Fold this sequence. Notes:
alpha/beta, Rossmann fold, 3 domains, 6-stranded mixed β-sheet, 5-stranded parallel β-sheet, 46% helix, globular
Amino acid sequence: MALNSINPTQTKAWDKLKDHFEAIKDDHMKTWFEQNPGRADEFTIKWDDFYVDFSKNRMTSETMQLFKELAEEIKLKDAVSSYFEGDTINQTEGRAVMHTALRAPENSKILVDGVNVIPEIYKVKALMKNFSDAIINGTKKGFSNKAFTDVVNIGIGGSDLGPAMVVDSLAFYGNHLKPHFVSNVDGDHVNEVLKTLNPETTLFVIVSKTFTTQETLSNATTIRDWFLKHATQDDVAKHFVAVSTNTAKVEAFGIEASNIFPMWDWVGGRFSLWSAVGLSISLAVGHDNFESLLEGAHKMDTHFREEEFETNIPTVLAFLSIWYNNFFEAESEAIIPYTQYLNQFATYLQQAIMESNGKSIDRSGNEVGYDTGNLIWGEPGTNSQHAFFQLIHQGTKLIPADFIGFTKSLHGNKDHQDKLISNYFAQTEALLNGKTKDEVVAEGTAPEIIPFKVFAGNKPTNTLLINQLTPESLGKLIAMYEHKIFVQGVVWNIYSFDQFGVELGKQLATKILHEINTSSITKHDASTSNLLNHYLGNN
């Protein structure tokens, strides 16, 4: 069953939301907290090891009730069922969207085109486990009979961002293998990585669904050429493995069939870290931790699928995001994790969110008449406090922010953790309350400086407090944002799982590369022609 095509702005609930917005848009959250002593409890969801406080948002119980009415009008529950049951909801590409199946229990039955995909998923998981264990334990060795010390993931987009983020986030759980990620076609990037490697002890994982992606194949070929300066063609089979659907091209590259890990059309690239694309995760932190990551995601899947909307974490976060995007006209959202381990989390979510919902055509093929998508950015706290928080606190833009924190640190330094969390709590409190003119005056501030020290406050935040950063909790967190993306796409009446917008540039790059190689420039706009001539004249 395909998703319904319902313009949200034509619903009764949307009209009510517009009227409601006009009634409360200038209210200050401080007043609501004063009027309702139970507000924090009313707008907090406690689930498993997650404590999600969304009370510091410019909304009321009426706001949430109207979004529930909107969800009913656009048939969100039906969409969620289609999502989990293998329906072809990626309609423009004729595919199901089944990354949730990758973390389902082995006794599940999930049909795609009438076939239960669970046995095949678990067959690939077994291959991943056996391979990872053999590399980690040193029973599988390189061409000179030395154990592996380094693993290089070669991929781009979803074949890089997800695995790289997870490996970085779970560095505490890492083993002796040193992970590296090569993505950019920039030759300086790959050569900087190669400088640090020993060909005798390095394993290369090439991740490319079609095995035709220009960046990935260019990097893989450069790395293989470097490797062959130290080894033979037969040795390639011991040091290179692939995650791909294109067996013929992989084998032509020199990789044995037994070292090819399959992937499927019903898994989009930016949602693929749960599949064999996550092989580098399994290698870096061990397969048991990789399985814990999947188990956490499955727990969030179950919560999202079964929980009522008002206590459903991904759905509530999606509603709030739509509230700011479409009513307050906020263009961006900040993701602020208070742990250095999640240094790459905002970067990962940029692709997951902006590639999914950066669409201007609705599910009926018409241009939308309302804003979709969000600009996503962020940096870990406390670093970000010394970088861009000035804009959030006193700038002219409304920037909703997710603050993500952990009750317990991993290394157990309580002094550092207390200082970190005190900043985490203080920033959301400051963004809520601001600082009044009277408070500034009371501090003895010189009159001419007073306006500069006033903070309006009333800046919205979500506070996600999780017990500890573990593979399981990270799995829940990633899946939470995946489902938030899905709900937003359903409400906005767009297809979240294609990405045709990335293809035009690729097509033109192929044409321009041919022109560079042949020094024969064809018709372009004047700017591009001048740039090409300048480049060719300096090479």
